[in-house]
Amino acid sequence: MARTVLAGTLWPEVTEEHARGSLRTTPWKLPRGELPLVRCRGDVLTVAPSLRVDIHVLTRTALGVMAGCVPQPGHRPPHGLLTEEDLLPGRDEDRVLLERGRLRQLRLHALDSLAETLIGQGRTALVMEVAWAGIRAEPLRESAHRVVVSVRLAEGDAGEAICHYAMFRTLSNEEPGVEPSFRFTRLLAERLPPRVAAGHHVP
User: Fold this and answer.
1) What are the φ and ψ backbone dihedral angles of 93, each rounded to 5 degrees?
2) Contact, 153 vs 122, CB < 8 A?
3) Where is 116: in which H helix or E strand?
């Protein structure tokens, strides 16, 4: 990017001369290692190819998981998918909000895909970790809550499954004002004895 454009982007509220001065001093404040983070070529600054950008890593990892590149038994899920935070929290510029939403949805879809794969591998403890990562990112994401209930039922813990379903149903009714999907309610109805389901008002 040209220096003038970059300076105006980073310091839009000061004069052009002040912005260019700030840009001249900024590269000297960056960490200095064997490889530079930013390269200066005349009036153009470029990011060094060796620079690791967490957003790029998250994107590659998420797309890889959805394409079927998943951890084999004995290996943990990609750390970034479980722990990544929103892009630039606290910033509300339109371009940041747009990219933040894109990355969040990409991560959530990857978590859904990863949970399905881990269920197939019988790795229930990691399935729960993945599901809760999705719930932390989006508390009303039904697919993640379904995974939690499904694992509870598979482990024979009907009480916890019902409690979690009831918690999600209450949350869903309070905020968007909708009922859980038919797929979710059918999951419980099909896996619980009729007497148990009826006693807990499972539709």
Assistant:
1) -65, 150
2) no
3) helix 94-120
**Interatomic CA distance for residues 17 and 53, integer angstroms:** 30
CA atoms within 13 A on the CB side of 83: 7
The DSSP call for residue 13 is T
Beta bridge partners of 2: 44
Residue type, 53: V
**Are 109 and 66 within 8 A, CB to CB?**
yes
Q: Is the pTM of this model over 0.90?
A: no
* pLDDT at residue number 199: 47
- In one-letter notation, the amino acid at residue 95 is R
> Tens of pLDDT along 1-48?
999 999 999 999 999 999 989 988 887 787 777 777 888 888 898 888
Q: Which two tokens stand for residue 126?
A: 């990691």
Phi and psi at residue 107, to the nearest 5°: -65, -45
Two structure tokens written together for 198? 């009826």
Q: How far apart are CA 72 and CA 49, in angstroms?
A: 30
Q: What average pLDDT is seen over the chain?
A: 87
